Amino acid sequence: MEEFIQATAFGLLIGGVYALFASGLTLIFGVMKVINIAHGALLILGAFIAFTLWDQFGIDPLLSILIVTPLMFVLGGVIYVGTVRPLRDAPLSSTVLLTFGLALVFEAIMGLVWGNNSNSARPSYFNQSYDLLGITLPKAQVFACAIAIVVLVALWMFLSRTWTGRAIRASSTNAQGASLVGVNIAGVSALTFAVGVATVGAAGSMVSVLYPFLPGSHYIWIARVLSIIVLGGLGSLQGAVIGALILGLAEVYTQTYISTAWATAVPYVVIFLVLFFRPQGLMGTRLREDVAV
Amino acid sequence: MGSSLRSGAKRSFAALGLLLAAIVFAIGCGSDSGGGGDDGDGTITIGASLPLTGEFSQPGKAAQQGYEVWVDMINENGGLLDQDVELIVKDDASDQNTVVADYNALIQRDQVDLLLGTFSSLLNLPASAAAERNRMLYIEPAGGAPEIFARDFQYGPFFTQQATADKQGDLFAEYILNLPEDQQPKTVAYATLDDPFTVPVVDALKEKFEAAGIETVYDEIYPISTSNFDTIASEATQDSPDMLINGSQFDDGIGFSRSLEKVGYDPPIFFQTNAPSFGEQYSDGIGEENTEEVFFAISHVPDASTPGNEEFVQAYKDKFNGEEPPEDAADAYAAGQVLQAAVEGVGSIDDQLALADWLRENEVETILGPLQWEDSGAPIGEFLIGQWQDGQAEIVLPPDAATSDEVIIDGQAMPNDE
Questions:
Q1: CA A33, CA A87: separation in Å to the nearest integer?
Q2: Which residues of chain B from 289 to 348 reach within 8 Å of chain A, CB to CB?
Q3: For the whole prediction, is pTM greater than 0.80?
Q4: Contacts of A123 (CB under 8 A, 6+ apart)
Q5: Pairing outcome for strands B406-409 and B294-298
Q6: Distance between terminal CA atoms of chain A?
Q7: Cα–Cα dist B163/B172, whole Å
Q8: Quick one: closest CA in B to A135, which residue?
Q9: pLDDT exceeds 90 at position A59
Q10: b/e for B294-325, b at 16 or more Cβ within 10 A?
Q11: pLDDT at residue A111 tops 80
């Protein structure tokens, strides 16, 4: 029983952080129908910035979220204006290729600036844990998960309690309808892209403490994060949270009860089975395409 | 946001299909970071593909720098067969398909005169097959999986380290099994990356320890995409093993060590492949205070007294901002030395099989020490065993190559010649 509780604790802590990793991606898809393949590279970029702030100025990587997030918000806006906006009305495939190209560019830039060395920040708590009745709770995971919850709740409040957030949700649900009632779709898209990149910046700060990373690490993360949002339902924030928790738990349960060798395969089998019975994902909704588009 | 699958499943899946294709393309596309393939009068072109991006980019970059230093030094000393050497390096993105495409392109399109190998057993397995098909000598600096040498190839691969992966831990195992009875470990846990280099290292250690009656309490292989090690560390240390063996490359080795700290377990004896040999990068990754007593196998140390090593270390520092050369750079440099010895020994580059046969019959002096090979290209020798002591990576075995005269087991200093 203790082993099960330990595994569940690890899975939930990992899943909570995964949820923040995925939130920006699903938000951007929800509003703009852009699958941002550069999301993983931006995650690693956030990690590099947080690592540098820790390494050069001693700023705690988790506190550096307060610096990294605004920086990434601005970067998101610049990326949108410079590259995504001109292709806003292009087919989905064009933006997939565009953002994939951006991922490669960011990987190359990170390699030039920081080199191809593996990095990971070591704040005082990086190797410490809480012991709760025999259950180990790594402090870094606990702090990161708590911050992820705060950021996700703030994001949800922003989306549900503010006019701007409602405009984003309206644009996500029905862009033409939103436009008819006066929502500036172009402005909402720019804001959404910037917010999505800002959230991945916050997530990157967590990566800098939780995992070793180098410029090429983004391939692993984009695959995982895409799986989460497909499982949860493309465009659904709640779905991303649920998908992330399921993936985190599935990884850990597989490591504990089946084999570590299957830890990255079994969760994808779970995703396959879910999509087999519910192709729109757990929280996605099927709509008629002629009406929806 | 919950009802936002507006573009419909078809478009989403089409996009995901494109995405998958794009990722496959990303993994598959290499880039040429070298010069052209002009092998006109007075120039010998040497081609290599290295993982300059992707999972193995860290050691791949180091290997590139080792090759570059060798080329600089050989050109400064009159070249190879009195001709300048030009190096063409392609990026295989740590991908097995790309590395084959790269070597085919180097041979057929760039028409290089000679080849040098890539990094890691994973990539050298297919790359050496491409060289063999094209009847080109293949010398590789990092690829010690035994299966690489079990294919009866004629043109290599010649591995330019002291021993193959299955022999990497020999001296370590021998030392542990010769400890006094009351200090010998009774239980051992194994956590191994699924990689053609790390698995043979751990399998060979396991065979020796099992034969000696040391009980295995945990034995798992984890895939290369593993990023969370907390659960693995927790499971591996559940029975408080006396000895922990982690077959790892760099990133996963760092991740595993950090997770060991998180679950609060300090194994009395801890052997890790690869990661601890990265010197400062290892201590930066896990914290210097956490490196203490970690054992590892290593092929080269900067202060080795081998012929030419001092010049190599100085040239590397001069070229790369005073950095000490990492092990992978030294291994690549040694590969260049072996290629040079074969070419100068034969006196021509026209007959690549003659070059291979020359290596089968001769010993080559390198910065790693003298190297010799079996007919298969597998080296005949033994790795050095290192241990982190007081924040420094020291060589502890064999005693005649040691930089420290003691081995520390669970806080107790022991002579290294027991």
A1: 12
A2: 290
A3: no
A4: A54, A60, A61, A62, A140, A209
A5: unpaired
A6: 50
A7: 14
A8: B263
A9: yes
A10: bbbbbbbbbebebeebeebbebbeeeeeeeeb
A11: yes
